[in-house]
Amino acid sequence: MKRHLSGRKILITGASSGIGMYLAIHVARRGGIPILAARSVDRLRIISQHVQQEFEVPCYWYEADLSNDADWKDVIDRICFEHGPIDALINNAGMAVFDYVSEAKWQDIDRMLAVNVKSLIRTTHQLLPHFLNQKQGHVVNIASQAGKIATPRSSVYSASKHAVIGFTNALRMEVEKDGVYVTSVNLGPVRTNFFKSADPSGGYEKAVENVMLDPNKVALSVVKHLFTKRREINLPAWMDSGSKAYQLAPGLVERGLKRQFSKK
């Protein structure tokens, strides 16, 4: 296994399960040092122990609620103080509650925007000066195909991912001259615990179970492209083709895929 990340410190948010957990494993397998942040202390402890025993690299973890901006800022400051300059950031934390706007609870809307958008920008904003001073670094933002194609009952979630893609694209142009890479990872449905909060009924997960992505393979693709000049990672490929068609003829696609768009 090529250890192209040897000694590099990678901060991963939302690291207690799913894609985040596999990101930690693949970073460590390539010699990197995962620094994990999430709410679930028990899960973080287990992942950290596994990584250290299996790959013989340090793996640090921090309890953090990314929906609380002040607390999350303090955790980032602590990480930077204890570890010095970070080499790469993977903004993986995200959540959703699928609902019609007219029926949505404000606390769900507020939390989605806080976790998916504000915390991502907060983390990037605090770490970016380190990257610029080092003249190297990589910001990877886990977005969604929902940020390219909005569907009913995902209006706020789609809006949050539209924001992530817009932020990522602008940031990429701002820092490319300074040796810092910025990548957007736009995913379709992934087989994780994400849908337990997004759609507790299980209806949407059942409707798309045959096309769901493997979180291990997603994480592997992301880690393989760390410290490479990659604009986007789009998975699955057929959904990326659909999003491109949507940009060209949104009305036609909405009419043609109305039934599929309403599966939530």
Automatic annotation (TrEMBL):
What InterPro entries does the record point to? NAD(P)-bd_dom_sf (IPR036291), Sc_DH/Rdtase_CS (IPR020904), SDR_fam (IPR002347)
One GO MF term on file is: oxidoreductase activity
Q: Which family does it belong to?
A: Belongs to the short-chain dehydrogenases/reductases (SDR) family.
Q: Which PROSITE patterns match?
A: ADH_SHORT
**Which Pfam families does the UniProt entry name for this protein?**
adh_short (PF00106)
Organism domain of life? Bacteria
Name of this chain's protein: SDR family oxidoreductase
Q: What EC number(s) would the UniProt record show?
A: 1.-.-.-
Protein keywords:
Oxidoreductase
